[in-house]
């Protein structure tokens, strides 16, 4: 009897222990799952205990737009920018992304030059270009750029451009504060002796005026503007020069391949054209298949309503003739659309050249930039009041708060338009970008 009671107590205790352990495991798993779910939920401006402030997210291919972003922890920032597979505990990596917008460790490991894959169509490889082409001045403006990315830009131009076509590389330092971009940069520029000019602005001018300064020092037939975090591809310049040689009022852009900001892997981009909406937000637009029909196939130049703005080529005298940039625009933003409209409406043409390929780091930068937002808003208002005619109401319909904001004196730009005998914006919609007018009723 005593043995039976002992066995009952033993098995009862064992059963109770097992159920207790199972209950503990279940509760612990539930707690962890809840935590994981919370950590993967998208951050909201309405999350309790989170401080909210205004920021902009920007890239040279995109118009900056104000966003409300939650002030989050370093770990959250790293996860959102780098992804879960990156080591967010590395402070230097986090700071590099915050400062430069891409992976500085990989950039340093790549060094000052590398080979990138040839992303051109096979038909492009069969094309031949005349030996006698116009010469090019390559203008590269930079402000606090990561040293290796800047140097790879220059090295790729140096290594992949026939030197008889390369008049010069003009570097414009827009008052950078990074130490690597001073004596260290000057020392390494000896590599390009005889082909390099460096201009150091004595005050911060912003990209638009920095480019004007660079262009004023150029002596080549063609101005080629590049961003400071690019890598040109094989036979990149000849197609651009050849197109302009055939038509001096043609402005041309390469296909802009993507260099991934996390891995710096060079990736081909499809042949697209530049476009925008009634918010004046730049976007890439598909090219219809019939536009590539004919004997030239995928090598045929593509008419583009707008340019991204960071990378393009234009005859130097034509750039001056049509009024360069609006020098009263600040920093950057809107100058690409303003120049695009001016080219088309004032007798020029704008094309994408598929056989020219240039890689560009798709930076992911965040920053408090109320000054930049104000400048970009002002830039767009100058564009709207000079070039959109009665269609400016379509812009203000979507941005009513901007209708009575100041935008400076535009009389010089209005006079330029009259002097050049430019067409109306209605003509632009009818002949260049009818798809925009078709969306007139959309928000």
UniProtKB/TrEMBL annotation:
<dbReference type="Pfam" id="PF00535">
    <property type="entry name" value="Glycos_transf_2"/>
</dbReference>
<keyword id="KW-1133">Transmembrane helix</keyword>
<keyword id="KW-0325">Glycoprotein</keyword>
<keyword id="KW-0735">Signal-anchor</keyword>
<keyword id="KW-0472">Membrane</keyword>
<dbReference type="GO" id="GO:0007286">
    <property type="term" value="P:spermatid development"/>
</dbReference>
<feature type="domain" description="Glycosyltransferase 2-like">
    <location>
        <begin position="137"/>
        <end position="317"/>
    </location>
</feature>
<protein>
    <submittedName>
        <fullName>Polypeptide N-acetylgalactosaminyltransferase like 5</fullName>
    </submittedName>
</protein>
<dbReference type="InterPro" id="IPR045885">
    <property type="entry name" value="GalNAc-T"/>
</dbReference>
<feature type="transmembrane region" description="Helical">
    <location>
        <begin position="9"/>
        <end position="27"/>
    </location>
</feature>
<comment type="similarity">
    <text>Belongs to the glycosyltransferase 2 family. GalNAc-T subfamily.</text>
</comment>
<keyword id="KW-0812">Transmembrane</keyword>
<dbReference type="GO" id="GO:0005794">
    <property type="term" value="C:Golgi apparatus"/>
</dbReference>
<keyword id="KW-1015">Disulfide bond</keyword>
<dbReference type="InterPro" id="IPR001173">
    <property type="entry name" value="Glyco_trans_2-like"/>
</dbReference>
<keyword id="KW-0464">Manganese</keyword>
<dbReference type="InterPro" id="IPR029044">
    <property type="entry name" value="Nucleotide-diphossugar_trans"/>
</dbReference>
